[in-house]
Amino acid sequence: MTSETPKGIQTWIHFLEEGAGQLWLERFLLAVVAGMVVVVFHFIEARNFATPEAMDQAQVARNLADGRGFTTWNIRPLSIHLMRQTAKTHHQTGTVLPPGGHPDLENGPVFPVVVAALFKVLPAGLRYAPAAAPAPIHRIPGEMAISWFNIVLLFVVSFQVYRLGCRLFDPIVGFLAAAVMFGTDLMWRFAYSGLSTLLLMAMVLALARVLVSLEARARPDALPARVGPVLLSIVSGALVGLLCLTRYSMGWLVIPLVVFVALFGGTRRWLSAGLALAVFFLVISPWVARNWRLSGLPFGTATCVLFSGTESYPDDRLVRSLNPNMAGVAWGEIVQKIINHSIDQLQEDLPRFGGGWLSGFFLVSLLLPFRNPALSRLRWFAVGGLVILFFIQAAGRTYLSTLNPVVNSENLLVVFAPLAFLFGAGLLHTLFDALEFPFPLMKSLAQGAAVVVLSLPLLFALISAGLSIGGTIARRHLPMIDPPYRPDIVHDLMGTSPPGSLIMSDIPWAVAWYGDRECVGLPLRVKNDYKEDFFAIHDGERRVAAVYLSPLLANSPMQRSYFQKGLLGQFDDKQAGDPWFDFYLNAALRGKVYALPLIHIYGPGYAEEGHLFCAQLNWWKLRPVR
């Protein structure tokens, strides 16, 4: 093989067919295909954020980028309660809702910091760009920036899978796993969700790479290396700490990590395991101390997810509560919650946790012995991590999984999908090796066909998008999630209120992100005894300037109880359903606001589309005509 530049047509043909040009041609074709997938999916299939978690983290990142610190404009009543209790313990007085931002007690810091850095390097106007009306390609610029960042992460994760596959198996297995990873429709949904899931996948793959190196260098016959098992165990503990600070529930991976290091860390394995655990706690301790100082809990409101979804606090009642009694929740309720969700996960989530059939090959590969000890040991780390996350996911499941059953921050099993694809591709390659093909090209074609079959959901979506471009079929959906997330409506309604106003809404995450206003979630009652109602905020903390109720109030499957209501106009604890639904009907159908000092209903409004806006003053009449 020569490195000289080819001359003449025959030399070029040989260079492309058998020389070094063949590799570059393959890379070029792969890049073209990947680019086409990105372009088509981005302009046709992608939509705006559909999960509360994505909007919540985006607005926290914007506050960071704007110099307001780690504050949130999505204010949970539960967070108010925790800060009140802490202030009372320390004999502090004053409101916990000062203008300018409430300390965020829900999210880990890593992903918001990364997104804030992204916002800082991009034009400042991108963070506050007005929401576009529904149109074929209009989306929120800030969301597009986060989505493009996640797409880059998808390429990074696919490349990590390829490199790890080459190291543990061979390049063919690495390519199969990476191609299926890139061609899985669920991965693209997560890329455009705005969630931190792909960042977690990249961290888990980096952790797997570190553990493989640790295991190899801890063997008795290993050659000396500058980076030994002890240092690698420190790196692994730091990685799990970062995983925990990205999504708190991922911190439980420290258990299989310590077990792995203790078993396969070499002659100094106990020292290595202790250092990994110590570094993990060292990484998370400053943030835990911050949360403890503000709320009295190590992970803020996220610490309470165990009680959310129990019989005492079904749906979103806990996060909306201003005076919860979590100590009164019986352990039997928590056990029942874990059992119920575990049954659902065994039947639905586990068989398709990676969004593709290759996950099933991973489950079968557990029965396959490997001659390479690194493969077997990494596989059991993956199994241990999946088992831990299986029960943590069941215990921490809340109303967020009801709003978005698959693509949500509580889907923890999907984080191990890249490793599952890798082992599944190893089993698939073994099956192909066991078959007899008439010539080598036939085997390559069969492997390519397997990748195509495993990527059929994404391919069908892209084909549908292509036909919609040509006008052959109607488009499957607009880029805007409706109901209830209409960024243009939220932006317009919130724009009527003066800057610095405090809004109350059933979708505070959307008001904070799209409306650029501080927003407290609906408490449990409209008006009752000043403990769980509107006036506990309005009189006890800070004046509420307006209430915005969206179609989520009536349309969400989580809100079925709203239809089991009492008499219109009864806003106390004695009625069967949620009193905010009665408030919604009174204002929307009768044109009057009862029980609250918000007497003005948005005149030109969007009531016919299910959006109700009640305010202290009719600011919209003072707004200049555009």
Plain-language structure description:
The protein is globular, with a radius of gyration of 27 Å. It has helices at 9-17, 21-45, 52-65, 77-89, 110-121, 141-168, 171-182, 185-191, 197-217, 229-246, 254-264, 269-295, 331-349, 358-365, 373-395, 399-403, 417-434, 440-454, 456-469, 487-495, 508-514, 534-538, 552-555, 579-590, 619-622, and strands at 71-72, 74-75, 102-103, 502-505, 518-521, 546-549, 600-601, 612-615. Helix 21 links the parallel strand 4 and strand 5. The protein is built from 25 helices and eight strands. The strands form two sheets. The protein has a six-stranded mixed β-sheet with strand order 2-5-4-6-8-7. Strands 1-3 form a two-stranded antiparallel sheet. It has 626 residues and is mainly alpha-helical. Among the domains are: 9-45; 141-298 and 330-469, no CATH class.
